[in-house]
Design a protein that fits this description.
By secondary structure, the protein is an all-alpha fold. It is built from four helices and no strands. The protein is about 80% helix and about 0% strand.
Length: about 110
């Protein structure tokens, strides 16, 4: 078997996807999961401590934390302007969403 035959066989086994691409995608999802695992309990504790048990605003912070985690991993690995820009964008959005939600929980409400 030559190199092309081996590569073709590997593509068929991996359903047309490159193994390195699959590994990269898996690691990005892991980074997103870790970010969510960090952000969600913090938001849940704040909700419980302030008596806002039925609120869903924390979900916004968790979703942006997941996006931030994904792009942060890519920015560290690839060091390309797009990934760095998206990391900064989602980081800023996540921080503003967290501040806004925490202010809401503490009763300050209103705009930032």
């Amino acid at each position: 078997m030559n190199k092309e035959d081996i590569l073709e066989k590997a593509r068929k086994e991996n359903k047309g996807h490159d193994l390195a691409e699959q590994t990269e995608r898996r690691k990005n999802w892991q980074a997103a999961f870790i970010a969510a695992v960090i952000a969600a309990p913090i938001m849940m504790i704040l909700q419980f401590a302030t008596g806002h048990d039925d609120e869903s605003g924390a979900l916004v912070v968790v979703v942006f934390a997941m996006d931030f985690g994904t792009f942060l991993r890519q920015a560290i690995k690839k060091r390309k302007p797009f990934e760095i820009g998206m990391t900064l964008l989602f980081g800023v959005i996540m921080v503003f969403a967290a501040i806004h939600y925490i202010r809401y929980l503490l009763g300050s409400g209103g705009a930032l």
